[in-house]
Amino acid sequence: MSVLASLIISGGAWAGGGNISLTEARLLLADTPPVERVEIYGDCYSACTMFLGADNLCIDHNAAFYFHHPVTRSEYRSGTWTGRGIPHDAHLRIARHYPAPLRHWYLATIPGSDPNTFYRFTGDQIAKMAGTPLC
């Protein structure tokens, strides 16, 4: 089995219709394929933030992480985000990939929030909140 030495996520990483899907995030978080190191630089939106739960992770202090209420793929594509069609446990399935302090914030903030509202954290803020190492 091959092992990736590093997975580098850099700039504009989106979920849904973007360049990192929820499925890809789940596969990489499950070490399929195995990854020795995950590095995040630049903007990290949506399902990209699930990499914050990866082992051997480091983040750039200037990286920006954007969290929002889950939306369906069809809502994402249409640009009309209501969050009404998501499974009732979607928040829990996403949050389980976050370090505990970030998971607690997410579950206290995101359910019931407007899906069009993004909550932004810098790499420095995530490092302080969740203890995630900086690159």
Question: Can you describe this structure?
Answer:
It is globular and about 35 Å long. The protein is built from five helices and six strands. It is an alpha/beta fold. It has one domain (7-130). A three-stranded parallel sheet has the order 1-2-4, with no helix packed on it. It has helices at 22-29, 73-78, 90-95, 100-109, 123-130, and strands at 7-10, 38-41, 43-45, 57-59, 64-67, 119-122.
Chart the SSEs and their pairings:
Layout: E1 7-10, H1 22-29, E2 38-41, E3 43-45, E4 57-59, E5 64-67, H2 73-78, H3 90-95, H4 100-109, E6 119-122, H5 123-130
Parallel strand pairs: 1-2, 2-4, 3-5
Antiparallel strand pairs: 5-6
Percent of residues in helices? 25-40%
- Estimated share of beta-strand residues: 15-25%
* Strand line-up of the largest beta sheet: 1-2-4
Based on helices, strands and strand pairing, what is the structural class? Answer: alpha/beta
Q: How many strand segments?
A: 6
Rough outline: globular
Helical run tally = 5
What string, H for helix and E for strand, traces the elements in order?
EHEEEEHHHEH
Radius of gyration: 14 Å
User: How many domains would you count in the coordinates?
Assistant: 1
Distance between the termini: 27 Å
Largest sheet: 3 strands, parallel
Low-confidence stretches: 1-5, 13-20
Average pLDDT, all residues: 75
